[in-house]
Amino acid sequence: MLQTLHIENYALIRETDIAFGQGFTAITGETGAGKSIILGALGLLLGQRASVATLADHEHKCVVEAHFDISELHLESLFDEADIDYDNLLILRREVLPSGKSRAFANDTPVQLAFLQQLGPHIIDIHSQHQTLTLADRNFRLSLLDSLVAHSALPDYQRTYRKYTSLKHDLETLVATETESRREQDYLQFQFDELTAARLTEDEQQQLEQESQLLSHAEAIKEGLTSAAIAIDDESDSSVLSRLRTAKNALSHISSYHPDAEALCNRIDSVLIEADDIATELQHTANRINYSSERQQEVDDRLSLLYRLQKKHSVNTVSELIALREEFKSKLQTISTLDDRIHDLMEQVDQAYAALQQAADLLTQQRIAAGKALSEAILPTLHELGMPDARFAVQVDPSSNYTPQGHDTVQLLFNANRGMEMHDVSQVASGGELSRLMLAIKSMLTSHSLLPTIIFDEIDTGVSGDIAGAVGRIMCRMAEHMQVVAITHLPQIAARAEQHLKVYKHVEGESTVSLIRELTPSERIVELASMLSSGSPSEAAMQTARELMQ
């Protein structure tokens, strides 16, 4: 329920605060006085786009704030999903800055306009003359029937629909993958076979490069090793070992005369042993080096293969080649299992489609029953609204085209004239008939909907006399279940309201501003009389106004 509305610096309104009653509130005023400004301000709170053109003073920001009692609307989950603190008293605020930027808040928490747009349909319904066009909208017709069902099958159907469309999408993706994979299977197989035939090992390249280096310089290496061995130990007296033995003998003769000679002699002895071992190792190493042109060719060929594969696949190591081989292997294995996966997924899609059909059929049955109830329920209201010969029926036709709302096509069949064949309302109903038909539908929905507030914006255009009185009575009945606000120019409707607000213009200096205030009972009589008269209210108009109030 809308409790209060604060408007500041919006269009012709400088600043105003409006407190709304719980039942039926009428808002009246001369054409152009600013009644529509209130709807525009509420529209900002419901997520409509803002414009600096609406600022009365372009030096200051516009502020619109409203308080709503949402204690009985069960909106906790909606707030949880948006990560916004929930409170039974909802405070919505919208600010439009002179720069053109706008900010929105829910319970003092900044929110996106998308949240306001999502929240709006749950807290308020603004019904204008132009909303009769929604009678031709498929989704409106389906939602209309679903709202009349106590436990609608729509949520279960939508879960089934999401599962079916998800599985169908997965299947289409997998089939496309299979088609593409089959095209590259031969290429992958060739690459895998080539890398497999290469019998790659992790450290092979490094070892081969070392062996190639050795084979390429085998003669020089062998000659160097041999020369080093001869230099250390050969038959001549100039070898290293021969000279060390001479030095050892010289020191051994004087070791008994000098205390350091024996230690030096022992050290030379150690060097002799090490040098002899080195000479032996050098000779053995030289003997092991045997150059083979055949082995040289084998190593070069193997390295050429590795270098070619690395260049082909744009990698630098054998390890990367091995990783590629395993990747090709994995892809080939995946391709080989695609047929089985597609078969399994096709079975799941078939099962989901069968469940979808079953859920859609149940939804159709509910809608057919709801349509019959709607047809029977609104006829008395249509008769009350001045269409005694009106006939109305709801026709639900299932199709093979499944959508998030089901597979039904709904026709609202109508004719206001006796003996005439019924057709869809979009083809045979006049503007006034559509307006009264929509009012009849909305009045019926009142007892089925949790919507706390509905605002009628001059839907009484083209209505007068007894029909205007009927419209007022219907709004009164609606107000027994919800908050009703009617912007009207008809005294027969305004007189039915429990609360009467008047919007009027006032000149302040060089500016014109819109003001709004609640009328007292005596002021209401004057206002109703003014609405009945073309000029100053006559005594007859005043008397008629009193009778309307009674």
Summary of the model, kept short:
This protein has 550 residues and is of the alpha/beta class. It has 17 helices and 15 strands.
Written account of the structure:
The strands form three sheets. Strands 2-1-4-5-6-7 form a six-stranded antiparallel sheet, with helices on one face. A hairpin with a 2-residue loop joins strand 14 (499-508) and strand 15 (511-518). Helix 8 runs antiparallel to helix 9 (259-288). It starts with a strand and ends with a helix. The protein is elongated. 55% of the residues lie in helices and 18% in strands. Among the domains are: 1-124 and 451-519, Rossmann fold, CATH 3.40.50.300; 179-336, no CATH class. With 550 residues, the chain is α/β, with parallel strands linked by helices. It has helices at residues 35-45, 76-81, 113-123, 138-146, 154-197, 204-216, 218-232, 240-254, 259-288, 293-312, 318-384, 425-428, 431-445, 465-479, 491-494, 521-532, 539-549, and strands at 2-10, 13-19, 24-28, 62-69, 89-96, 102-106, 109-110, 125-128, 391-403, 406-415, 423-424, 453-457, 483-487, 499-508, 511-518. The chain contains 17 helices and 15 strands.
- The CATH superfamily of the domain at 1-124 and 451-519 appears as P-loop containing nucleotide triphosphate hydrolases
Number of helices: 17
- What's the rounded overall pLDDT mean? 85
Structural category is alpha/beta
- C-alpha termini separation: 27 Å
For the biggest sheet, the summary is: 6 strands, antiparallel
**Rg measurement, Å:** 48 Å
Strand-residue proportion:
15-25%
User: Which descriptor suits the 3D outline?
Assistant: elongated
Low confidence ranges:
none
Work out the number of β strands.
15
Strand order of the largest sheet: 2-1-4-5-6-7
Helical content (DSSP H or I, runs of 4+): 40-55%
Q: In the CATH scheme, what's the topology name of the domain at 1-124 and 451-519?
A: Rossmann fold
What CATH architecture of the domain at 1-124 and 451-519 do you see?
3-Layer(aba) Sandwich
